[in-house]
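Dissemination and training. As part of the outreach component of the grant, students in the summer workshop were shown how a complex can be specified as a set of sequence lines and then modelled as a single object. The example used during the hands-on session is reproduced here so that future cohorts can follow it. Participants entered these lines:
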Amino acid sequence: MSALLGAIEAGGTKFVCAVGTGPDDVRAIRRIRTTTPQETLKAAVDFFLERPRLPEAVGIGSFGPVDLHLDSHHYGHITTTPKAGWAYTDFVRYIEQAIDRPVRFDTDVNVAALGEYAWGAGRDCSVLLYLSVGTGIGGGVIVNGTPVHGQTHPEMGHLSLPRAAEDDFAGCCPYHGDCLEGLAAGPAIAKRWGRAPESLPEDHPAWALEAHYLGLTITNLILAFSPERVILGGGIMDQQHLFGRIRAEVHNRLNGYVSPLTDRNVLNGYIVPSALGTRVGVLGAMRLAQSAL
Amino acid sequence: MSALLGAIEAGGTKFVCAVGTGPDDVRAIRRIRTTTPQETLKAAVDFFLERPRLPEAVGIGSFGPVDLHLDSHHYGHITTTPKAGWAYTDFVRYIEQAIDRPVRFDTDVNVAALGEYAWGAGRDCSVLLYLSVGTGIGGGVIVNGTPVHGQTHPEMGHLSLPRAAEDDFAGCCPYHGDCLEGLAAGPAIAKRWGRAPESLPEDHPAWALEAHYLGLTITNLILAFSPERVILGGGIMDQQHLFGRIRAEVHNRLNGYVSPLTDRNVLNGYIVPSALGTRVGVLGAMRLAQSAL
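and obtained this result:
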């Protein structure tokens, strides 16, 4: 019998908690609005305590930045977040003490990448990139089945890019102005065009520019660490028409330099949507819990 | 007793072959000018055959692009290189058949990264970046002791960067014009300023611009996959004064975003020169040979 696993997808606007044994056996799921850490973490714990049986381990995929170094004083904390009240929240210890089960902790995007690696569009990829494009932009990396941490954890939202010739938007990142997130996340699209991204029609120039910046970014990431597949998720990627445009941009930019990717058909299977869709975060957290057993 | 290991550092202008058991016990070393594949590979094999004892395995770090997929038809080949006569050279099979010992094969920069991980400035780093800045620019990545391959292999020379405001040099990459290599490799410096890089004094504006582009690149690579250390090698990095300038650039660009790297003292031990120096390629190849045993 498979182990009962607990999962927390911790986002800045909502938490999603679930218990189950895998993607085909999610036994309960609950959405919780993110308010104060005290209120939100208590609601997450209550969800697990109200179930007939406690999970054998809990996985957490969290917004960040987070501290993932097991030997650090701040391991398991959300660290320097600007989100009011959440800086230096000791997430892991709170859950461990309340549930008394092993807890595993990682970034929201590393956990999403892990979910896709185990159960989605990235199975058997020795090097996997998951990039989320929504209210923010963030990326996770799996190498040989394990999320990459390194010095902190992969980040990817704040990459510096060459500007498109026709683009004079100042960008809206409070740290860097016109980094990737400042140019291409949802709020940047809204500010640049004065309209909510989801209200922009497919033929609006916003989308050609979006595909340009995402294609440029993905090309750089391919050259940097050679993922075997690139999975794109997040609210902006609900615009399915972006995929073809991003592949075309990557194809043009690589300009024949990386040989298997010179084939457009290869690119169709190489830059793909999340297979787990809106459940990618919580299922990834469930998979992370499994690694504790 | 340690195993006798064979090493080939295969460059576009010279090959370096060695036998030994490690960095403190290099028993013989030979430089061979790179001419045709037939002549050059035969000279490399002759070096090993002339020794009193054959090595138990041979490691090769090669210029590229190379095919590292064990299940590929072209595994062990140098593939689409523009270097005359070398495209689709079956490097591994030639050495295996001539020496009759296990052969391991990787990129020159992955092998350099492996050497630094095993015996140099990158010991115990779970994620390690080695960047070589010379006639070309290339990078290698080690994750948990193993060189990253993924879809092809990390590359890093052809990254797209924002241009410095004052810089109108067109760049000299035949594929991309003003990619990193087209802006900042040795030939780009020579073409931009009309002088050999090694003849430019420390206070020449060439070096401030070089540090700007390398600092920008390293910042992007930190954000992309979070190396625990960044080791810089290659002929351009013989300019020791570049290290302080590159660290300052990375510090300014991160702008407090990645917390441990906000400390300048941390950066001094984080962006560092190759500890193996000019022997990094051939020693890395020796370490790669060890992985075959």
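DSSP finds nine helices and twelve strands in chain A. Students were then asked to discuss how this feature might be tested experimentally.
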